[in-house]
Amino acid sequence: MQNAETGTAPVKLSNATLSALPQDVLRPRYDRSRLTPGIVHIGLGNFHRAHQAWYLHRLMQDGLAMDWAIIGAGVRPYDAAMRDRLLAQDCLTTLIELDPAGRSVEVTGAMIDYLPIEEGNGALIRQMADPAIRIVALTVTEGGYYIDPVTGGFDASHPDIQHDAANPDTPRTAFGAMVAALRLRRDAGHGSFTGQSCDNLQGNGAILRQTVVSLAHMSDPDLAEWIDAHTSFPNSMVDCIVPATGPNEIALARELGIDDAAPVTHENYRQWVIEDRFCAGRPDWDRAGATFSEDVHAYEAMKIRVLNGGHQVIANAGEVLSLATIADCMAHPGLAAFFDKVERTEIVPHVAAVPGMTPEAYVDLITRRFANPMIHDTTRRVAFDGSSRHTGFVLPILRDALAKGTPVTGLALVEALWARMCAGTRQDGSVIEPNDPFWADLNATALAARDEPQTWLRQDHLYGDLLHEPRFAEAFCGWLAMLWQDGVEATLAAYTRD
């Protein structure tokens, strides 16, 4: 495929070809051969490359943080394909910013290597044990921290955790690898590294501490105490809408003159708010636009409840209505009205303002961002892993609303829409492919709930005692019955006109 504007073939991305890229493509101004590692990042998905790695790249563009380069890592077999793609292009990434006002293209180079994916994670453990590594960061999804969804505590019964506790030198999980590396650092007299979660979790640093320390305690209580005393786990809030990459994104990069096997598209918005608690130093990310704050919780709550919770408000309905993207959902009048009412009447009352932003203004901002037609963020991606996202993003708001006596009927409809989606068919009769790690159980329960809605709420591992909260349970059962009888659009209209 040739560049549509110049008629030339796209340039295969690599260090050697940076100077041959189209003139309007921003590229590293720094000498990448001078970079030395300071960060291991586990989970090299699109979000990390468009967000945390971009902030570091911007510092390097100004000649800063040259000793903080990223070494990528993964712990699952499927990570090997991404490793191959990135190593083949010298770990460079093309970022394509998509906005109704125009698009821009930048090649970033803050990442310099990607560790082998291997059973036992030996290479990862050795790299993290190197005292040059001062931060170990993760984007492993909000469902990847082995949390009991009802209690919020550590799930010590999970088979992966049981394996790592019994085999601490050859772990399966990222957290087991961190524990093994910290043991080596302690025994060698080295200091600890900072553990930095970059996932969408309320108190993500505290949750990472809980997982690492609890896992260490299962095999070595003394090590667990050392980790707890010497390792910092700063909380942070991360924000940027970054769609998954598929053939269309790869084709777009080629049209723009770059042959990149793993390009990333993203919106024209980023935010990163971080606690300044780093036991072994950190880059000056604030000089690239990040915010260091001791009140990360307020930023987290606003973003997770309004944006991440808002995604769940519309995604399940969008799937049942065959709406392909989040922008399509926002272009649907009934679904947009539903989103607006739930956000303003049932979510905003449980969100505090942050410096420079009220909850109401943040809803306006999120509405504009979700409606961006240039961002092809699929409804399927946003609806993925509802068993983690509803328990993490929606149910905490619901519990606050029940405790405070504020409305819950819209949140009950959000949950009913999830149950309807998990039945596995859209209104047009097409099949919704499995889209949750626990899809088989969810699907069977959703089908049974068609005739007896309370069946869905009997999933104690998700809902706990919410079945016995009449304001919620009665509304949920009524909505689910209406969804099956009258369809999604009529049910949304019934909520928004009340």
Automatic annotation (TrEMBL):
A Pfam family this chain is assigned to: Mannitol_dh_C
Domain of life where this protein originates: Bacteria
Oxidoreductase among keywords: yes
Keyword Nucleotide-binding: no
Keywords: Oxidoreductase
Domain Mannitol dehydrogenase N-terminal as annotated: residue spans: 38-286
Start and end residues of each Mannitol dehydrogenase C-terminal domain: 295-477
Protein name: Mannitol dehydrogenase family protein
